[in-house]
Amino acid sequence: MVTIGAAVKEPGSTRKNKTGSWRTFKPMLDKDKCIDCDNCVLFCPEGCINQEYDIDYDYCKGCGICAEECPVKAIKMERD
Amino acid sequence: MVLKVISTNMAVAEAVKLAKPLVVPVYPITPQTSISEYLAQFVADGELKAEYIRVESEHSAISAAVGASGTGVRVFTATSSQGMALMHEIIFAAAGLRNPIVLVDANRALSAPLSIWNDQQDTISERDSGWLQIYAENGQEALDSVLISYRVSEDNEVLLPCMVCLDGFILTHTVEPVDIPNSEDADKFLPPYKPEHAFLDPERPMSLGAFTDPDYYMDARHDMELAMERSKKVIEKAHQEFADIFGREYGLVEKYKCKDAETILVAMGSICSTIKDVIDDLRSQGEKVGLLRVRVFRPFPRDEIREALEGASQVAVLDKNISFGVGGVLYNNIKAKMDVNAYGFIVGLGGRDITPKHIIEIINKTKNPITDVQWIGLREEEI
Fold it and tell me: What is the ipTM of this complex?
């Protein structure tokens, strides 16, 4: 049910909105090629890559910035 | 009873003082300016205990009003013409967020050509925003309507903002005797606002104005349609209680000598006083004419209008606005919702005077129609 004025009465509800569904291209990381430079972690605008370089596909929108910024081309964008 | 001879803008300021809003963000614009000045004076003198925000534009005025209303307090703002046009974006947001803001608009023509004089194009152009709209005929009704608007807008069955529309200069700058209710009676009719609707409170975090995807937007808009429909009953109840306390009766529409009338004129605002005079004259000569004054334009009182026009052979609808190519908006709304022999007349744009002579011309043209929509009072060379 939509509340009056579409007010969101519970905090933290943005987590329920899995923006990963917007994605067309999916970043795939080859951990063997990775040199642990952290560029992808720092550049990801959605904070979807953690310190272990695991990508959170629930919220990754597939913008491709990580692949663009990777100095050793360890991230490839593949059609989802 | 305290009868004071004051301008309608002063009457509005007195009404706001009685309604006790806690936040008043306003930006001055002719012919609304003196409302903003009187309110500033009241706040400076401590007669109105409100936060008076001197904003930098009308867009900011209504934005501040939405923000303040979102914290759960009563809010007042006022504007006119270009100011209303600048508010347009947030006018829709205020209704969608279901903020029970009350706004007074001093009806003035929209540019271009630039004009400071009266017509009703500015508020009529906001008719689809989800705001309730009341068109006052005189200063007393303007004062009373501000109090009634808060009662209706803040009702949990409604929760839609309301604009009270006054004809610029014709009402705003004309002085007339106005009965200013005493504070106790006003408090009885309009108690302090106790918000139950969503409002910001650190103890109970929530998001207002969040993005909605196609799964939610349409239902939220439909809920506004239902609230608009429910508001009719709430308005009628507020009118009844207002009459009980203050002795002045209002309706969604006002029927003036309509009962046996063969020709009925339909209009909104101050022009209705002129029409009433003409009707009195014509009635004394045996002509069966009447006036249906639409006081509440949104919600649209279609059943009340249909019932009032039922017995008439012909109907003339006067509009101080134009939707190019189709005629006046009140005329078109009436034609859309009922089967009546109605003709539309565009009058008084940009302050063009409407005299009893024009009203008689309209009645004659309604009895002998040439086209469905006609412009009245044009310069000779334009016809």
Answer: 0.81
CA–CA separation, B23 vs B38, rounded Å? 15
Contact list, B219 vs chain A (CB under 8 Å): 2
Q: Do B207 and A8 touch (CB under 8 A)?
A: yes
Do B206 and A8 count as a contact with CB atoms less than 8 A apart? yes
**CB neighbourhood size of A11 (10 A):** 10
Q: Which one of B223, B230, B231 makes the best mutation probe of the A interface by having the most chain A beta carbons within 10 Å?
A: B223
Chain A residues within 8 angstroms (CB to CB) of chain B: 2-11, 13, 17
Cα–Cα distance measured from residue B94 to residue B70, given in angstroms and rounded to the nearest whole number: 10
Does B66 contact A at CB distance below 8 Å? no
- Give the residue on B whose Cα is nearest the Cα of A17: B213
Amino acid type, B10: M
Residue A10: closest C-alpha in chain B: B206
Q: pTM of this prediction? A: 0.92
Per-residue pLDDT of chain B (383 residues; tens, 9 = 90+): 789 999 999 999 999 999 999 999 999 999 999 999 999 999 999 999 999 999 999 999 999 999 999 999 999 999 999 999 999 999 999 999 999 999 999 999 999 999 999 999 999 999 999 999 999 999 999 999 999 999 999 999 999 999 999 999 999 999 999 999 999 999 999 999 999 888 899 888 889 998 888 989 999 999 999 999 999 999 999 999 999 999 999 999 999 999 999 999 999 999 999 999 999 999 999 999 999 999 999 999 999 999 999 999 999 999 999 999 999 999 999 999 999 999 999 999 999 999 999 999 999 999 999 999 999 999 987 66
Which of A2, A7, A17 faces B198 most closely, judged by CB atoms? A7
Distance, in Å, from the CA atom of B88 to the CA atom of B347, rounded to the nearest integer, reads 25
In this structure, the number of other CB atoms found within 10 A of the CB of residue B205 comes to: 12
- Phi and psi, residue A29, nearest 5°: -100, 130
Min Cα separation A13/chain B (Å): 9
All residues of chain B having their beta carbon less than 8 Å from the beta carbon of residue A17 are 213
Q: Which residues of B touch A9 (CB under 8 A)?
A: 198, 206
Kindly state the DSSP code that residue A33 receives in the 8-state scheme.
T
Buried b (16+ CB within 10 A) or exposed e, B131-162: bbbbbbbbbbbbbbbbbbbbbbbbbeebbbbb
